[in-house]
Amino acid sequence: MTPTRFGFTLHRQDGAARTGEIAMPRGVIRTPAFMPVGTAATVKAMYASQVRELGADVVLGNTYHLMLRPGAERMARLGGLHRFMQWDGPILTDSGGFQVMSLSALRKIDEAGVTFRSHIDGSAHHMSPERSIEIQGLLGSDIQMQLDECVRLPAERTEIEKAMHLSLRWAERCRVAFGEQPGKAMFGIVQGGDLPDLRAESARALVDLDLKGYAIGGLAVGEPQETMFGMIEAVEPHLPVHKPRYLMGVGTPDDILGAVARGIDMFDCVMPTRAGRHGLAYTRHGRVNLRNARWAEDTTPLDEASACPAARDYSRAYLHHLVRANEILGMMLLTWNNLAYYQDLMAGARAAIREGRYGAYCEDTRAGWRGETAR
Known about the structure:
2 domains, 15 helices, globular
């Protein structure tokens, strides 16, 4: 029976690692979940049907990019993002805040929101918390994120604290703007930089808003892995057990394994698709740089045991040739391989948590990565 409302069911825990399901009218998201990034209404170099076949239950769209091109109102007239990109499952849209901070050369932040110039044509735009939610509604997304202010690290405590409190006030406004939308959800975003006390304060205040889910933002921006894990550990005790937790913009397979072990349910990152377009493959044996001349006459596939044809059926020599020749097919095959690996990693994590062996799964997976360098 298709659910009519948003709901999260926690099925099993193994230590802090969790597996469960987010039920929505457009489908069930099995957690822990990796969400392929479809920034501009496409997961780059992939058909939507391929992404689904690899095991992805949800994809991510980007509010900033889509509001600039093709435009939120136009997207609504065209029937929404799902129809536009031929994806029938859930879609999560980020608020656009991170892209405004990272891509816009000229921007001004105040209580009302952020004023910025497009990185495409220099045109001026204003994004308030209310407008961010409105845009995400026009896109038709199923999970919408609050507008927040992202601070580049390292930063002074006063700057981090100011941005964190502004993000909390914006969260309240986003919650009002979102209202009640049965079957959909709005998530808050925990900020606080690399300061545990501010992270905990942000988490407690967001929980008081009684949102459908909670994200941790402002990480995976160049800080050491131990800092990222430390911030998760500072936040996790303050988050409700029976609501999903999303670590934004993460990350490497090792980052994901460590974050799952600390209680995170959802992830997104451009890494597997971007790496695929630049000749880097993720495999159970480790990372393989197909630009390297050592593969020029290697007739073995990336992974003969993989169910993904890109990993199983094409030789490393051929993939090396495609990459060195800058052929589009090389980008497509390596992206396909990488997303397949990420989805297999998540499926393995879910199974291991259900069976109470997540620690052993992490150890075995990490041991496998060391195999490639020995070949």
